Amino acid sequence: MHIVRTLSLATFVIASVACAAHAQEQAFYKGKTVRILVGTASGGDYDTQARLMSRHLPRHIPGQPPVIVENMTGAGGINMVNFLYRLAPKDGTSLGVVPNNFPAQQWAGGGGIQFDVVRFKWIGGLTKETSTMVAWAASGIRTLEDAMSREVVAGATSRGAITYSFPAMLNTLVGTRFKIVLGYTGGSEVNVAMERGEVAARLNSWSSWRATKPDWIKNGLINVLVQAGPRHPDLANVPSLEDMAKSEADGKIMDIALIGNKLGRPVAAPPETPDDRVSTLRDALRLLVEDPLFLVEAKKLNMELDPTFGEQMQREIEAVMKVSKDYLPRAREFLE
Prior knowledge:
The chain is α/β, with parallel strands linked by helices. The protein has 15 helices and eleven strands. It has a six-stranded mixed sheet with strand order 2-1-3-10-4-11, sandwiched between helices. Strand 6, helix 6 and strand 7 form a beta-alpha-beta unit. Helix 6 packs across helix 15. The longest helix has 28 residues. The chain starts with a helix and ends with a helix.
């Protein structure tokens, strides 16, 4: 009987502490607004996922604060991430969807970076990612070999953005001949440029194509030249970049450059965000991906959920930042 009473008391204490913490978080978030910053223009995959989260996340944050999305474009997302790191409120009301290639960019010493990815408080992401380099079918580019035999104009946002670094990596490690045109504000603008014939190719995730351009896939308007990251069942006949490494060093460089595939569309809070708020937001994401209303809308968007939670994301990013810089000279050709 004594043991039962002791266990009951311990359970009561734990429950009381949990209730008190929940009440504190509810008191903090009630009346506040949570902002999710996106470093690309509206309509792309980062923006789509952020807005989906914003519609359903409030139900899972104590106090049910409204969640709004703000687009802060410029420099391939670097401006937004610098702001999130240095200037955004560090109280649990600011989040950002960080371009998933930024850990690799920081490892390589990319220009314009005023943040340390290890110090962000990573909340998690909804999907992992299969990257795809595609060509507009009308361009006549059908395979990666075609892109090795002739110059192909590819659209991108800026140096440092994955839309630049991926085709540049293909040029360096595989021997393609992508001529990369910079200056587009986001994926939606590059899509329009493809339709107009201004560019012939671009990098995008397969999940984004499925969610934003299912008619392009259905009608054969794009040809997938290569995939990277988790192999997708839709792309059984498409070659995988990881299989093309010509040396152990090239394989290591690909691992670094493709860290974004493991991260998907990663959401982070600024450094110094209190640990209890970080835990609250991570818990909210876990609840979100099991929310029936959220799942219904995600299905309508053709979004394939494969979440990565904050703790794992933190470990993946820390591991990349510890990779030897011996590989840096070759990686600089496309990661800076």
